[in-house]
Amino acid sequence: MAEHPARPCCLGWDFSTQQVKVVAVDAELNVFYEDSVNFDRDLLEYGTQGGVHVHEDGLTVTSPVLMWVQALDIILERMKASGFDFSQVLALSGAGQQHGSVYWKTGASPALTSLSPDLLLHKQLQACFSIRDSPVWMDSSTTAQCRQLEAAVGGAQALSCLTGSRAYERFTGNQIAKIYQQNPKAYSHTERISLVSSFAASLFLGSYSPIDYSDGSGMNLLQIQDKVWSQVCLGACAPHLEEKLGSPVPSCSVVGAISSYYVQRYRFSPGCKVVAFTGDNPASLAGMRLEEGDIAVSLGTSDTLFLWLREPMPALEGHIFCNPVDARHYMALLCFKNGSLMREKIRDESASCSWSDFSEALQSTEMGNGGNLGFYFDVMEITPEIIGRHRFSAENHQVSAFLPAVEIRALIEGQFMAKRIHAEALGYRVSACRCVWRPSVCHRHCQLGLCGLRIPSFPWPCSWNRRALFRGCEVSPKSQISCYPNRRSFSGLRGPSPSIRQA
């Protein structure tokens, strides 16, 4: 068994759609350990595709909650086998896919607080969930509940002004309302409802972790100005909901010390602190240290644009969340559901499953694609609400197919065109800011798309999955925890540098 030298550190966890990931960093934010468990590849027994189950109606999308727990078990056991020194971990925090919800069964709390160090977590928590398949952000089955919620508060704009967003099918409040209406028995047997982020934190705490302000903003339940649950929204969704949610807390809160389970089984220090986990998008904003005027492009399972705001500007399109770094400020967010999975489908269909062939085909066509346009939504899109593949020739006639190279460019140009159009419609002045983007497997199509933004743009210099790390993993010599990275570690991102190119 390999031994790692003693090295005070923090752990960052990411409970995302397709995998659970961990990174370990020292006080200088140097990453010296990382690992991941891919649900489709490493946990075949759950039968997921892309980490989820799409139900027969094509709208309901869930993930097995125990799959997430077992993935954590696997990573921790791997770390233990590698000789990782858990006693050196001063604190941990993380991120979870936004909007997903976990339903703890009545009586689960004692099981969580009395975990046996002789058994794996997933073996002990099997009976702890009233809903075994958690609704996730890809779910679009709650349209009726959305309309009910908007009607209860006086319309979509009123709800947006109150909670930062109009009612969206994936938002947790509407998912809770659906469960209450369609499965009231399971709801009545639920003692606590967590977001994926607070669920993950709860596993480390050995007790229920509170929901943080920033991730809680993605529920259509939190009054973003006052940072309290909206009584009108709670009442419109389900009874006794406030007690099942608990009180929200600032995203930078230390929510407690690590459970004795981890101390006994893995030799964590009893003093290891757990910082509130937050949503994946808020964690990304914190990790990249965006400032007012900046814009970030995340190309992941869903594509996301987000930026820092001092004053909220709620609208019918896009979202306003509480800022994960400074509770006095806010962040704006635009989500596009058909992201990397859509690009991978077109890659498989038009480029023989090869990113290299994909890039070559892209380069073989000219910018503007000869006037050919394409918009690709294999699952119900969020922005705008539409489904299907829509292709238009240079003569503005709808066509059924393109040549492979034309298809590839139509996909990429269409996706980035949509991002710019929707961002400007919300009042974003992209011409006056910098753009930070994540290089993907096929980074050329990222560069192409950013040409459409026509702003100074440069890649984030580390893997995007380290967003969880950077929201809670800076440790001072006095072992105090800060929820954003050290400025010195990112000096290259402040102002012009050789890596910046003018698009």
TrEMBL record:
- Which keywords are on file for this protein? ATP-binding, Carbohydrate metabolism, Kinase, Nucleotide-binding, Transferase, Xylose metabolism
Q: Which GO terms describe its molecular function?
A: ATP binding; D-xylulokinase activity
UniProt keyword Kinase present: yes
Keyword Nucleotide-binding: yes or no? Answer: yes
Domain (Carbohydrate kinase FGGY N-terminal) ranges: 136-287
Q: Which domain of life is it from?
A: Eukaryota
What's a GO cellular component annotated to this UniProt protein?
A: cytosol
The reactions it catalyses are: D-xylulose + ATP = D-xylulose 5-phosphate + ADP + H(+)
Q: Name one GO biological process term.
A: xylulose metabolic process
Please state the Enzyme Commission number of this protein. 2.7.1.17
What function does the entry list? Phosphorylates D-xylulose to produce D-xylulose 5-phosphate, a molecule that may play an important role in the regulation of glucose metabolism and lipogenesis.
The subunit field of the Swiss-Prot or TrEMBL record says: Monomer.
Q: Tell me the protein family, please.
A: Belongs to the FGGY kinase family.
Official protein name in the record:
Xylulose kinase
Q: Which organism is it from?
A: Ailuropoda melanoleuca
Protein's gene: XYLB
